[in-house]
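quick one, 517 residues, struct below
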Amino acid sequence: MDSTPDPRRWWGLAAIGLAQLMVVLDMTIVNIALPTAQADLGISDADRQWVITAYTLAFGGLLLLGGRLGDVFGRKQVLITGLIGFAVASAFGGVSQTFTMLIVARALQGVFAALLAPAALSMLNVTFTDPKERARALGVYGAIAGGGAALGLILGGTLTQYLDWRWTLMVNVPIAVVAVIGASLFLHNHGVEGIRTRLDIPGALLATGGVLSIVFGLSEAEQDGWTSALVLSMLALGAVLLAVFVVVERRTPHALLPLHLLRDRNRVGALAAVGLTQIGMFGVFLFLTYYMQGIQGYSPLKTGVSFLPMVLGMMTGAVGISARFLPRVGPRRLMLPGMLIAASALAFLTQIDVDSTYWVHVFPGLLFLGLGMGMTFMPSMATATGGVRGTDAGVVSATLNTTQQVGGSIGIALLNTVAATATANWITDHGATTPAEMAEATVQGFSTAMWISVAAVLLAALTAAILVQSRSMAGGAHGAEAVPAVASAGEAVSGADEAAIPAAATAGPGDEDPERS
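---
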């Protein structure tokens, strides 16, 4: 088949970017609207967390299955199905009249996000076959993935303040319509016909149940405590189910997650880095949102706009730096400086106090945190999703997304617990009673918890330094192994491998099928 790049591929990237934007927007856009929605629908303080958790539970728990469905039935069809379903669920949530309706809508959003998120990333990898073009496309995708959450805060604040909280859900409908039209016109399926027509149902049930149990246990830890019977039993159940999942995957010919994909040290290092850095990202969104609104008295919109420096830094790091230099220097030489910059920015943000000013104490931290994360996310995504045959592209993308969700869930649960404990201890030690003292105690809790974020990002840097190779694609065949998603294997392949990421020709030892280039 003709290997000439599709002249409409950049329009296809626009559709993929819209799909990804919709997913990441919903990670934060509803957070700003939650207080208003809670008052409107009469949601109790104990139940309000489920407006967020229902989405993350369904999303994180079904991602692996969603990725494999794309590999089996066609990524374009699954992407479009996910977009349409997400739009319908969003519309249903926008007209919700009860707490139950809203929770059902949020869970359905998570289900369809689990379809479209891995399909979008795998479509990018098989649409852009030129290494340099893929690097640029991944830079755009990484900027959207990293900055979309902050944009969600801005949009959520605007819609809630000037229209209605329901528009934080309804806004997905026009986005999805445009994305469906773009995907229908400019994206194509690649070599999925006749490939793995059977689904790994036992693996799907075990993986979904395991991840759901762990995410549920982590989400309950904030309210019930880490030592509660519910939390411990759910975490233990999740661990057992995932252990059984590994055993099953080793024996089935149609594995949901082919374990050979995890034999590549580069991929494992990139996935670990992504998961650990999410703790730092979620910590900033969580605590700075509370800090700016609760301590500094910012409005929802002003709070969202205050995160713009992070978006600017993210775009610069992903598109301006990583996309340009990744093919030449390799992933580790970008990931390590990026994570060290991000850790330094987080450490700077721990110095925030009640009387701190935005331009002196918040702005620099956000700007450099975004820069460091942008330099980290793009090469991490390229390394994690590269060097696989096309039939596995969806499940690798799903694994990356699952790592992000699990990392974020761990971050929220862990950091909330640390912050609450530190705040309570400060109040006890200082006998705090006045509003000013309570505010000081709250900020002390935030600062203590953000040191956990610093440690997590530094651990991510150490993991990448040990596991991710430093060679660039200029180093020849071996060097290409280090940068699977941008390796210099541009030749066409035949049969089922026509869909393969070109770096399959130089994949690492754990990635099979290199001989069919």
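Residues 393-430 form the longest helix (38 residues).
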